[in-house]
Amino acid sequence: MRVSFSTAAAATAAVLVLASCGSGDGGGGGTAASGELAGEGTGDSCTIEGEVPIGAVLSLTGAAASYGESQQRGLELAAAQLAEKGGVTYDLRIEDDQTDPRQGITLFDQFVNDGVSLIIGPTLSNAAVQADPIAQEAGVPVLGISNTAAGVTEIGDYIFRNSLTEQAVIPQTIATATEEFGLQDVVVMYSNDDAFTESGYQAFAAALEEQGVTVSETITFSKADTDFRALLTQAQQSDPDAIVVSALIEAAIPLVTQARELGIDVPIIGGNGFNNPRLMADAGQAAEGVVVGAAWNSASDNPENTAFLADFEAEHGAQPDQFAAQAYAGLMLVDQAVRANCAADRESLKQALGELENVPTVLGEFSIDENRDAVHPAVVQVVRDGTFAVLE
Amino acid sequence: MLAQYATTLTFIALGAIFAYSFYAVLIAGQLSLGQAGFASVAAFSAATLAPSGDDVGDVPALLTAVVIGMAVGAVASVVLGLPTMHLRGVFLAIATLGFAEAVRVVLLNQEWTGGAQGLAVPRILTVGMAWTALAVVAYWFWRMGRSRYGRALEAIREDELAARSMGIDVGRHRLAAFVTSGAVAGLYGVLFAYYVRLIAPSDFDFTAAVDGLVTAVVGGSTMFLGPILGSGFQTMIPEIQRAVGVEAGWIRPFLAGLLLLVVILFLPGGLTSLIPRRTRVPSSSGGPGGAADPAPRLAARAHPAAGETVVSLTGLAKEYGGVHAVRGVDLEIRSGEVVGLIGPNGAGKTTLVNMISGLVPPSSGSATVLGTTIGRTPVHRVAAAGVSRTFQHSKLFNRLSALENVLVGAHLVSRPTFLRRLLWLPSARRDERAALEHAARCLRRVGLGELAGNRASSLSYGDQRRLEIARALAAEPSLLILDEPAAGMNHVEAAQLSELIRSLAQGGLTILFIEHNVGMVLETCTRVVVLDFGEVIASGTPAQIAADPAVIEAYLGTADDDPGGRSVADGTLADPTGSSGAATPDAVTNVDPSAAGTLDIPDTTPRNAT
Questions:
Q1: Do the chains contact at A109 and B108, CB–CB below 8 Å?
Q2: Which domain of life is it from (chain A) (predicted)?
C-alpha cells in the first residue's frame, strides 16, 4: 500500500511538473485597480496606464473545436495588431471551455472573479445562455462573437454580440435567391441535433414561407453524418428548384459533393455554416454555384477586410472563415469602445459598446442596436471560380 | 473565499452524484451506460412538470423537481432493467448505451424539449444544496456498505454463481441496484438542470456517460467515498492546469488523459485504495459491554429429524448434447447421513451435485431436496430450503475479507439491516454483531479465526478450501454438499477435516461429499456411493464398498499385474492409482489423479461415443 502510494504520488507530481513546463505566462494577473483603467486622450490618442484584462471563452477542444480555433486565430491576430498600435495594452486571456457547459460556467465565474473588464465569447449559443447570466449578474459586459440564436442578448443589458442572428441573414438570402432563381418549391435539409443549424433551419422555414416558396420536403440528419446519398436521392424525387441546407461545414462539404455526384444541379442554398473557404478547398468543382447567405462578405473590398485577409493569410497560410472574421472584428470593436471614453472599466465599456455606431470593420459598417444586437450588412454570396462572389 | 470556488465545488458535488449512479451498479458488478439517459429523461420531465419557483418558492420548486426526477429515473430504470437484467458485462453496457442513445434522439425530436437548442431552466441550486444532496447520497451508500444488502451486492459482483448458492436472489438484487442507479441519475439530471440554466439532449450523450463511468472508476468502485474522490480529481484537473498555466488547447485533454492513465495504472482499485480498508474482526470476548449485552444468536435452522428423507432422486439424468453425464440415478439420502460420492474423473459426480443443489436442471427424472422440487426452482430457493455447498474450484468472493465471505454465507440466516442502518436503529447494530459473531464462529470452526481480516484471494489454496466450507456452514444448512473439500490439503489437514465433518454430522447435519481421497471417504462416511459413467455402480457402507469387487475393478483398481489386458476405451483403466488406498482403507492417502503414475495411458476416448 505504502509503496504504491508513493509511486503514484511521484508519478502525479511528475505529470504536474511536466504540465507546468508547458506553460506560457501565468494566468493569474491579479485585478487591476479601476483607477489604472482610465486614461487620457480620446480615440487613437487614448493612453491607458494599466493593462486592460479581457477574457475570452472559446471552445478550443471538444465538439466545437474547429470554430473555437478559428476564433482564437482571429482574436490573436487582432490582439497582435492592437499591441503594435499602442496606447492601450490588452491582457487577452483565451480559455478553453472544452465545449462543456460545466467548463463554460466555471470560466465565466473565474473571469468575473479575476476582474476582467469584458468577456468575449462563448463560442456556442447554448453555452452563452448558460454562462452569460453569470456576467450579467456580476455586471461584466460580454461580447458574443458567434452567438446567432435568438434571445441571447435578452439575458441582460451587459450582453452584446457582433454576430448577426440567423433572422438577420437568412430572410435576405432567401429573398435574393427567390428572385434570382425564381424558386417555387424547394427541399430543406438540416441537422437537427445542433442548436446552430436547428435555429438556422427555423429561420429558413420562416423566410421561405414569407416568400411564398413551397417546401415539398424537410429532411433531417445528424451533424455527425457524412453520407447523404440516400437523403439526396429522396430530395431529388420531388424535383425541387433548389435545396436549402442548414448544416455545419463538416456536413456541408460531403453534402454538396455528393449532390453533384448524383447529378443534382439545382442551386444549393446554405447559411452561415457554409461561409468557410474550406467549402471551395474541399468540395472543389462541386461547390460552384452554391449560394451562401452570411454575416461576413469575404469578397468585400473595404480596406479593413482587404488588410485582414492579407494579414491572416500571411500569419496562418490559409484564408480566414467567418468565425475568424467575427472574432477579429470583435476585439477591434472592444478597442473602439475602450477608446471612445478612454476608459476600460466594466461600466464605461458597457456604455461605450451600446453606443457603437457606423464603425468601419471587416464586417462592414458596424453598429449596435437598442437590443445590443449587431447591425451591419449581410451578404448573399455565390461560389464562382473557386471564390465567393456577391450574388447581386 | 468559499464564494470564489462555489462553481467548482458545485460541479464536484454534481459530478460525484452522477458517479454514484454508476457506483450503485458497479458495486453489484454491472456495467451500465444508461445513466445519462435516465438523467436526461429525468431532467427534461422535471423541468417541464415542476412548478415554477415564482409560484411556490425556489426551494419547494427544486424539491418537487427532485422528487419527479428521481421517480422518473427509477421508473425508466425499471422499464430498461426488466428486459436487460439477464445481460452481463459488456452486453449490458451495450444495451444500456443503446437506451441512452434512443432517449437522446427521442428528446432531440420532441417539441417540448426545445430540441437541440435546449430547454431553459431557472438556476435555483446553490453550492450548499448541491453538497447537501451529495451528503444524502453518500450517506445512503455508506450505510449500505456494511448491511446485509450491501454485502449481497458485493458478493454478486465477485461471483454471481456462488452468491446464488448462498441464497441471494441475484435477479432482485441486481434490479434493486439498477433502480437505485436510475434514481440517483435522475437526481443528478435535475440538479444539473437547475444549475446550468439550459439543458440540451447533447448534455447527456455518450461522452457524459463515459465521463460518469470514468469518475466512478477513478475514484474506486468498491468504497463509498470513491465517487467523491473521483469527481474531485476529475473536476480539479482543468482547474489545476489553468492555475499552473498550461496553455489552453489540445495539450490539456492530453495531459488529463495521461494523468488518468497513471492513476489507473498505479491504483487499479481507484483513489480509494489509498484509504486503508478497516476490517472488522469481532473479538472473541465480545468487546466492551459484550458480556452485559450478549448478542442475540441467529435463528438456527431446524434440521429434519434423523432418518427423514432429505434427498430423493428418481431416474435422474443429465445429457450435454449426446454426452450422458448422469444416467438414471436413483438415490435417497436420509437426515444425519454422511454420504461420500466417489468415482473416476468424469464419472458425473459434480454434475450430480450441481443438480441436487439446483445449479443445473436435470434432463429427465425427478429430484426432491428438502421438500423442493429440483428443476425449475431457482438456486437461491434451493439454498433457502437448507442446501449449502462448496465448489470443486473455489468460488470465493476474492476481494472481500475471509470474514466478509462468511458473512455473505450467513445471508439466509441473518436479517436485513440496510434500512435500519440508515436510521441508526440499535437493533440493526445488534443484528450485525450477531451476524459477525456467527461468521467468526464459523471461521474458527474451520481453523481460520486468525485470518478473518485477510482477503480471500490472499489465502493459501488449502485455506481457501476451508473458507469455502466455513461460508457454506454459515448458512446453517440442513444439507451440506462439499465438492472435493480436501483437495490441496495435506494428510494432517485432511484428517482434521474428516473430524470436522463427523462432528457436524453429530449436530444433525446431512452431508454429501465428493472426494478423491478414498481413504478419507471410507473413514468419514456412513455410506459411500460409487459413480461410474454417470451410473451408480455401488452403494453401501464403507466396509461393503471397500470389499465390492465391482468397485475395486472399476474405480479403485486391483493389483492387476497385466494392465495392458484392460481396454482403455471402456474406461476401466481410469484411475489405477488407488490400489494402496483400497488395500488399507484406514490410511489417509490422497489419490488425486494428477498424482497418477507413469503407468496409465490418458483416457482420451470420448465418453459414450456410442
A1: no
A2: Bacteria
